[in-house]
Amino acid sequence: MSDQHEAAKGIVRRNTLEVQSGGNFDLFDELFADDFHDHTPQPGGTPDKEGASRLYHALREAFPDFHAEIHWQTVDNDIVTTFKTYHGTHKGAVLGIEPTDREIKFETVDAMRIRNGQIVEHWGVANLYYLLQQLDALPPSAPKVPEL
């Protein structure tokens, strides 16, 4: 793998481990380009850098111990794809659900385009259905997802 690919993976790893997991929001400003575009913003979010920042802050408020376990990463040209599991303890409101003090986990697959050492685009799929199941926020008739 080229040095450029390794550098791109490193940028995404720093975001996952230091910003999302560690709460280093000064680093967020360095890693995300001002013209960042999220192609898959979360419900109620906006597709820009400010929207990503608000989401990261909201996750840390809802889950103060929020952290990621990276399972694998791959690079295709300038796009880094990461499969990870997020973990945390539900201490604040999330998706309109009041705190339950439950420990949660849910998987995410993210693809991030890197340009000039910064994250410029994002596509992602988060298993929010499984998160809602762990918080008892699904209708009783909803099918259960097997334990991870």
UniProtKB/TrEMBL annotation:
Pfam families: SnoaL (PF07366). The lineage of its organism: Bacteria, Pseudomonadati, Pseudomonadota, Alphaproteobacteria, Hyphomicrobiales. The keyword Cell wall biogenesis/degradation does not apply. Keywords: Plasmid. InterPro entries: Cyclase_SnoaL-like, NTF2-like_dom_sf. SUPFAM superfamilies: NTF2-like. It comes from Sinorhizobium medicae (strain WSM419) (Ensifer medicae). Transmembrane segments: none annotated. GO terms for biological process: polyketide metabolic process. This is Ester cyclase.
